[in-house]
Fold each of these.
Amino acid sequence: DPYARLLLDALKQSGCTVFSDRHFSCENCDGCVSGGFDSARSQIVLCQNNIRQQSHMNRVVTHELIHAFDHCRAHVDWFKNVKHLACSEIRAANLSGDCTLMNEIARFKFGLKGHHQICVRDRAIRSILAVRKVSKETAEKAVDEVFDACFNDLEPFGRIPHSQADAKRAYRDFQNRDRYNANL
């Protein structure tokens, strides 16, 4: 998966190498949660009882790898600062493929103008509410306060990958980034 490959390379380049046997855990989970990032263990949890398709698993892995990347590079305060959590959730919804047109059509949610941003905002709020005991108003306020900056933070992709082809281009660009910068 080009999304995961890019994120794994970016983590390694940031000094946070990921080992599949150490940093991934498949578990049974409560409710309809598909995965999570355990910051205390730097571990991605995949909810084997709630993931039914490979494409869904790829999106969950990508979403959680974005959290791992943010944890590595930005020293996110996951538990005390809801704005930090909101920012990472915005980035994960924006960059993981959660809000692609096809996924939104499958959810019977689609629109034209600004729909991607609406989806990212809604999914970030839902994610915050799933992992923190905060009011919906608190989650909405945190997302709204950091939305623009976090939505426009496209690292390490450099673009919003709306498809596998976009993710492959982003991965190729990421691999060539050092070579390009060396010529400046």
Amino acid sequence: FQGIVITPLLLLLFLGSSSSVPFTSIFSQLFMTVVVPLIIGQIVRRYIKDWLERKKPPFGAISSCVLLMIIYTTFCDTFANPNIDLDKFSLIIIVFIIFSIQMSFMFLTFLFSTRNNSSFTPADTVAIIFCSTHKSLTLGIPMLKIVFAGYEHLSLISVPLLIYHPAQILLGSLLVPTIKSWMVSRQKALKLTRQPKAPVKV
């Protein structure tokens, strides 16, 4: 929700006057593309919730297939563009920067959620690490196509996002065992500290 507002504002700030940045058009298109479907889905869900719980349609599999199709078509559109002009060295640098950014975000969220005066549980920390740092192509690509509509180097702009999405999946799968063992050990330690101490007999 913040990105819908912040993205046009940043464009307006860095690119200059409103004549060069169609703020109203960008905001309205992002609102119709992102917010309206979400609101409609929440309203419809309220009326068909019982039916969904009875039938249990395979929305998880459908969602994964749609996401895979979006990733595939976006990769095809990006690298089929003859104007992309991206050499191998630049691609390697971009991959390194994206992985560094992702690791930095995860580390900072871990420090934030585990500070001394934090009220977050270990499970909360795990959720914060993964949810707050992960971004999806399903939102990023429509935002790019709306904000940079007609721009000839749109494919080049989408490359970092195309790398960020697989990077978060790869890093997440690699870090799951480590984070899980930390969470389990942390939960056990918290249980031991909360147990009442037995009275000492004199």
